[in-house]
Amino acid sequence: MTSTPFTRLSRRGVFLAALTLGSATLLPSAARAATGPGGSGGRGRTAVPEITGCAGWGAREPSEDVVVLDSRPDRIIVHHTATANVTDYSRERAHALARAVQSYHMDGQGWIDTGQHFTVSRGAFVLEGRHESLAALDSGERMVRGAHCVGQNSVAIGIENEGTYTAEEPPAAQFSALADLCARVCRQYGVAASEIYGHRDFNSTACPGDKLYALLPKLRQEVARRLGDDRQVPLPRWSEHLPADWANDPEAARRALGEYLPEGLLDPLRRH
To answer: CB within 10 Å: which end of the chain, N or C, has fewer?
Structure first.
């Protein structure tokens, strides 16, 4: 896919932290034996990813009520968490990551809850991010207003992918889980597979990393196949009116949108 003609500044790469939770574990059984991002869902695959709700991973309550909109999203925006590319693929790690992200977003950013709607761990576990996002998805008619991309929070579903994908591709199991989740979102809301974007398409950021961003055409095609369509997916309709942070004050945008996790938030003993 041809990249957009804008200068992109890295905001997450400069904040990388070597965050670990202990020794490596095996991939979950559904994703075992996957070693790269090349796994294919196949035509018409109808896999529905299991999504762990906020209660399941030990989320805190939001600081105020989340806003549920009586409208469908127009698109999906893909992110990466800019955390370490760990080999701990356990459910425990996925839950700890979700708690850490929520703590940073609420305590560090001052947001009411986790910013994104969903998170996909490196072990291919899919988690609800902001409260009520899963119920809204199941309805197919409502969406929760997020806090993941300036100018898009009321019209786009935000999906974080654990890891840093500036120089490394995501594991195949994670990529496949992301495709499954995107297909579910597209099916529920009537969103076209072509309407899957990267965060950098809208804000001044390196997110979701060069390697994952380069996989977005493949992701769109995989999602289309899961929806039963083998035709070539067209390029997205690039916005003609990008948010002001692109040109005016990219450093302010970087500060406002930083999502690196301070050291200690992924301490294995930290629990809520």
So the answer is: C
